[in-house]
Amino acid sequence: MDVYQMKTKPHSKERYQEFIRENRIGIGWPGIGSLQGVTKDEVRDRVRTVYQIHDSKLGNALGAIWSFVYRMQAGDLIGIRHGSLVSIGIVGDYEYVPSLDNPADGFCHQRSVEWLVVEEEMAYFSEKFQETIGHRGIVTKSKYSLDELQLKVARGRGKIDEFISNEK
Question: What is the SS3 assignment for 68?
Fold first, then answer.
């Protein structure tokens, strides 16, 4: 099980409360279509063509999109932040929602989430978890394990227990 953090402003629209309420997370990038079964080169070409970006901006966009669609797997943990509040959940599979693939919505690339922790103060988490959740990238995988992050997943209890150790 890997741990990711992501920002809550896909396509420049703040969606933290919507993520929590709808049990879904998502990234922007409307106009590039479904990314299921698409190669990294094809994603790069679509983003370059639709958004007219190059160099490091294209690399950053591609990294975030690829992480969300292909690196992140069902069963991984996602952490999101709103000010000093943190929510953590278990993600489902990537889904493309064609009806939201437009500039107004910009929320067509999604994953379901089973929230385990909702709006807990960031100060209660380990320094390594705070470092992970504070990463400036749009979507990034933590460089730390669950043990190092001091998270213990307790499914079905509605929270991450004690924040102290990995479930064995």
Answer: helix
